Please model this.
Amino acid sequence: MSVETVNPHTGLSEYRHELKAATEVEARLAAAAAAFPAWAALPLQTRGEHVRCAGAELRRRRDDIQRVMTAEMGKLRREALAEVEKCAGACDYYAEHAADYLRDTPIATEAASSYVCYEPIGCVMAVMPWNFPIWQVFRFLAPALMAGNVSVLKHASNVPRCADIIQEVLDAAGLPPGVFSVLHIDNAQAAEVLRDARVAAVTLTGSERAGRSIAANAGDQLKKCVMELGGSDAFVVLDDADLDMVVPAAVKSRFDNAGQTCIAAKRFVVTAGIADAFVERFVQAASQLRLGDPADEATTLAPMARQDLRDELHRQVEASIAAGAVPLLGCRPDDSHAGYPASILDAVAPGMPAYGEELFGPVASILRVADEAEAVQVANDTSFGLGGSVWTADAQAGERVARQLQCGAAFVNGIVRSDVRLPFGGSKRSGFGRELAEHGIHEFMNIKTIYVA
Ligand code: NAP
Model:
């Protein structure tokens, strides 16, 4: 069976790839199992040399990689280049810092010696989305490889060439065969792979729907899983916020990557004293974004990745307007294949899709509230719990609100972002488990107690 990918800007067929036959999947799982003991036994420094080489290879091939990302999922050229550099930086970071994270941790007890050591667990299956088609993979993979694990990747079906390039990069970095393999498989085949005894665990970055299915399968097999799912982050603007700083941040946080970012600001929770001024300036700034060909340097808003995703977003917008939301900007698809203009909905209220669902595209929801207390209540009135931000001139108030937000990461006067030094992940229906930093690298390790009486 084959799968076709379509250029989001032109609507033209880009590429057709064949799904792997069962025999090929079997060969790759066997190779992963065979590769694991030797990979785990390598000195950390040697694994680090491979991971560093992968970073150098990413930098060397950045223009290739950018072109493929732009053609397959519509990423703007500058955003794609920044993503490649972020991945290369992650390779450097984990090559350098893994030893600190993996060092034995002494724990004082009555024993002569007691401590925790960290052991790799084997082959981790990664199921990844298209929105950051290189970063999502390296965010998991660089620490996993340093930990001594091996991996098979099932990437989103609309970014097969991104997956192939990742394979090429790691092959060029000299990874032994089987340490990392791409599997071009569908979701039914992915379920089979997860059930295979040679797969120890799974990490998914994707939608809640995929999370339910994969976590259920992992649970059935008693395999560890990490779920990085959707979000509807609040961007809380308090009365004393500096709009010169807040408005550009709001535009960037909502509209970068065509709004298709799990930790994008999606709900703008704005207190009464500043709401009118914020909304006026936000609409004005967002109206300057230019939707168009993502390969064109003049374009500042990328198309969405697929037409069906654009159509679903528009359905959510129309249903919200029918329920009383007020369109202030955009809110109507243009005539390109998958483009959607920068859009803003005001007066968003409970019961509307724009209030309760994730809007995974360039649409901002404005939720007006009376004061700080109501801002916290509304920001938390969601089933998601990925990130959130607070904008205020009063750092203490910012921290007070940040600590009350029910989410995996709360930023004060900063855009929520992932950073190799900080753990990343969600609460509530945004998932569980962590990636990055010490918490992330330990997720797929046996945390083992040694006690010498
Ligand atoms: P998706 O449809 O869930 O796809 C993600 C991956 O899961 C793809 O590889 C997909 O493969 C696979 N998949 C879907 N259903 C599956 C199943 N039943 N069994 C096995 N694999 C399955 O999500 P998406 O549309 O690509 O990504 C958007 C979502 O990801 C948003 O909700 C976004 O917020 C979330 N996200 C979260 C994070 C985070 O770190 N928390 C980061 C980025 C994105 P196919 O393509 O073959 O269906």
